[in-house]
Amino acid sequence: MKDLIHIDGLNLYYDTHHALKNISMDLPEKTVTAFIGPSGCGKSTLLRTLNRMNDMIPGVRVEGQVMLNGSDIYSNEIEVETLRKRVGMVFQQPNPFPKSIYDNVAYGPRLHGVTHKKELDELVEQSLVHAALWDEVKDVLKKSAMSLSGGQQQRLCIARALAVQPDVLLMDEATSALDPISTLKIEELVKELHHKYTIVMVTHNMHQAARVSGKTVFFLNGEVVEAADTETLFSTPQDSRTEDYISGRFG
Ligand SMILES: Nc1ncnc2c1ncn2[C@@H]1O[C@H](COP(=O)(O)OP(=O)(O)OP(=O)(O)O)[C@@H](O)[C@H]1O
């Protein structure tokens, strides 16, 4: 599988706190990559560097390179809005807009200039189908997104992210606020979506990483300890710290 994202010598500081230390890795396209590791090890920080969400945090300094399909996303020529269209994100808490289901999904395409009703209708339907929500909402598209359950809201947020046809979908603990059934639905969805999208997910749940991802990266104190295909990392870890973590000795 071709590598879509190439990270080289990445360091990130929150003021004086050195949160990411010399990270280099490749993220293959159309694969789910899981970031695992104990709380505070830098998983979410690294995820946020992939669509420059850290730019919004005062005092953040980034050094090194993040290449997306051959271009450096930190170069001056990159427009952050365009980058975020290519690299969508879903957060821990479902955060639909207080608008109708339809308008949530149509929001991104409208922002990027799609105005034709038929085209919008198609995009909304296609995105909701891809997010495995269409059957549940197709008759209530005008209803408020806030009327949906937490799990449905999260799938709506996935549909909203997919509606602008991104290359990459970032998921930051996207199931940790959900019940087990909704979690399972999202895991099933992610397994389907990776045929079309490159997915990078942060998870506290090692079992989830093992179930869903093709590649896993284990972090500790802002450093990558080990990155490998998921089966190898969980069956034959090379580093004793990985082994200790996955066998539950800490974290
Ligand atoms: N906005 C911020 N300002 C200052 N420091 C931060 C900020 N966000 C994270 N940090 C610090 O950076 C380090 C990495 O945090 P990060 O949230 O990336 O870790 P994580 O592995 O995702 O943790 P968790 O699993 O608990 O979400 C931690 O020491 C954290 O305190």
UniProtKB/TrEMBL annotation:
Annotated membrane topology: Peripheral membrane protein
Coiled coil: none
GO molecular function: ATP binding; ATP hydrolysis activity; phosphate transmembrane transporter activity
Residues of the signal peptide: none
Any one biological process term the GO annotation gives: phosphate ion transmembrane transport
Keyword ATP-binding included in the entry's annotation: yes
Protein name according to UniProt: Phosphate ABC transporter ATP-binding protein
Main location: membrane
Source organism of the structure: Paenibacillus barcinonensis
Keywords from the named record: ATP-binding, Cell membrane, Membrane, Nucleotide-binding, Phosphate transport, Translocase, Transport
Record carries keyword Nucleotide-binding: yes
Subcellular location: Cell inner membrane
Pfam family, one: ABC_tran
Function noted in UniProt: Part of the ABC transporter complex PstSACB involved in phosphate import. Responsible for energy coupling to the transport system.
GO cellular component: plasma membrane
Domain ABC transporter: 5-246
